[in-house]
Each structure stands twice: as C-alpha cells, then as structure tokens.
C-alpha cells in the first residue's frame, strides 16, 4: 500500500511540475506569433499637431515608406490641441498592440515640466526609434527692419514693447525656441500663440506678427521663396541647405542650441517583437534615398544608425526630460 501511495504522489507531483512548462511554452509561442502576424490591418500614426506642420511632414514621409515595408497602410491622423498632449494622451490609452502609434517631437520630453496636469506619463509609452533631428531658424516678416541677427538682438532690446513673437502654442517647438531666445537676450516679447504652425506662418508672411522660430521642415521653402526674412539657425553648426545663415551661437548668444528631434512611440505594454518590427520598418524608411533626399530639401537628415534603436531612444528621452526641466522651471512658464 505504501508503494502505491508513493507512486501516486509522484505522479501527482510530476503532473503539477509539468504545468509551468506548458504555460511557459504557450506564452513563448504566443509572443512569437505577434511578429509573425503583425500587421494584419492598417496602422494609425497619431501626429499631435495640425496637418501641414513640420511634424506632420516628417510623419507622412516616413509613413509612406513604412507602408511598403509592412505590407499594410500606415495612416497619419492629426489630433492637435493642448500643445501636443491631447494626441499623445490618446495613444497612451490605446490598446497596446502596435496598431496605434505616436510620432512626436521634443515636446514628448518637455511636456512633463510644462504641464501641471499632464494626462499621461512618459513611461506610458514604448520607444520605437528616433527619426530625425531638425534644426530651427529664426525668421521674420517680410520687410522687418533689422538686416542681420546682431541687428535683430539690438532691435528687440530697444523695442521689446512693440515686437511680437508668434508660436504654434504652448509646448510647441516654436514656443520652446522663442522661450530660449527671450531668455538668452534677456528680452521678454509680446507672445502671440496660435493653434498650429500653419496659422502662425500665414500671419508672419502676411506681416501680422514680427518674429518666429520654427523648424527647417516648415521654413526652408518659405525662406528660399523669399516669403519670409531669415536671420540665423539654432544649431551648433551651420545648416547645409541654408548656407548663408549664421548660427545664433556665432552671433553672440553663447550656448544657444535647439534641435527638434522626432521619435516613434507605441503604448506601454506593446509586445517587444512588435516594437522591433516597427523599428525595423522605420529603419528601412530612414535608409530610403527618397526619404533622405526629401529630408535634405527640408534642411534635415535621417537619424544616425547608431541612434535609432528603441533602447537608445529610451535613454535619450530620459536625458532630454532631465535637460529641459531646469530650463522650463527657470523660465517659469507652465500650462494647465
């Protein structure tokens, strides 16, 4: 009887011990299945700004190439408002299956410091790769009096009460650049916020506002077409597509450097193999000569290969959050 009981107990133990192995096997098979079946339907990339702006331009160039690689339509949807936080918040709450993504710029790193009531956390996203670092330009309405950037700095200091600076809203790239320009020159200007870069640019071209700082993806065509007056670029080095423009650093604003980088995100919990597949398709897009050529026309270039991985993007985002926090706190600019 003792032997039978022992054999029965051992059989039960073997059955219990076998369960986790089966469960783990099922889990691994399920994880691998994601990459094999993804994507099986169209993917939506949310751009948290109005159509026609610089981030929208980047998104549409990348989406067209990713569509070919993934074999499913990659659709760009504009969900503007609240400085980009409305669209980002929508993606943060989306099902984490890789079918709803976010393409955002530097605002992903500055929003935690700018907004007192942010409806999401930076950690609510999976990083899928950096896309492109975009320089910015300081531009003015046609016929603006100063001839050089040095003249601009002198002019705004002497006329700060009447000079107007336009931006695409709190948290936008143009807002951040303007905030740094005012801090660097020690000159607060009358700020005119718009709901998007498009309306702001229209008013600048029309002479309703004096100055604006915006990405080369949005300003290069206007500059080359003579529709706006350009003074300087915000990068440490000169921009090849705009060789006549000096840098703000070389023009007397020491350590002034703003580059508006863009990245692709998925909701937190998106399977790692799906993120990897998205990252691979993004890499193909950035290596596409047509995309690179179009980026060059817009004054930018694809992100370097050694900076495209989800892991690099994650650490870079963490570093950027830490970098901008003291800048924004010192400026004392917040939004609800």
UniProtKB/TrEMBL annotation:
Coiled coil residues, start to end: none
Keywords linked to the UniProt accession: Signal
Short name of any one Pfam family annotated for the protein: TctC
Signal among keywords: yes
Signal sequence extent: 1-35
InterPro entries from the UniProt entry: BUG, Bug_dom1
Keyword check for S-adenosyl-L-methionine: no
Record field: transmembrane: none
Superkingdom of the source species: Bacteria
Family (UniProt): Belongs to the UPF0065 (bug) family.
Protein name (Swiss-Prot/TrEMBL): Tripartite tricarboxylate transporter substrate binding protein BugD
Lineage, highest ranks first: Bacteria, Pseudomonadati, Pseudomonadota, Alphaproteobacteria, Hyphomicrobiales
